[in-house]
Amino acid sequence: MSSAHEAANILPSNFDIGGLSNALNNPAQVFSMLDKNNDGRVTKQDLALLLEQFGVNGMAAKVLSSYLFKQLDANNNGTIEPSDLVHANGILSSLLKMKQSGNQ
Fold first, then answer.
1. Predicted confidence (pLDDT) per residue in 38-58, tens digit
2. pTM to 2 decimals?
3. Which residues, other chains included, contact 2 with Cβ-Cβ below 8 Å and sequence gap of 6+?
4. Residue 92: which of 20, 42, 29 has the closest Cα?
5. 4-101, what's its fold?
């Protein structure tokens, strides 16, 4: 299980927070983009694929997607619904601030 500190530490220095934040401003649109098979569910693997599109790759994508998934899966049912994505921007911003401040 990834902690906030692990997730912040693993963020690449070239992480495109602006691009991802813009994408996450429309949770329904991001959800439909992530839900490749249109089953109404987004998995941790789907989330990792989105992160890879914004420059988070390999182990970093796995660690960060694991942390984000845990934070976003509000009802702990193992999937993310569109309403769960509302808080994604705030979580990512907090991680970036944590990384930039060095107070980990």
1. 888 888 888 888 788 878 888
2. 0.77
3. 63, 64, 66, 67, 70
4. 20
5. Recoverin; domain 1 (1.10.238)
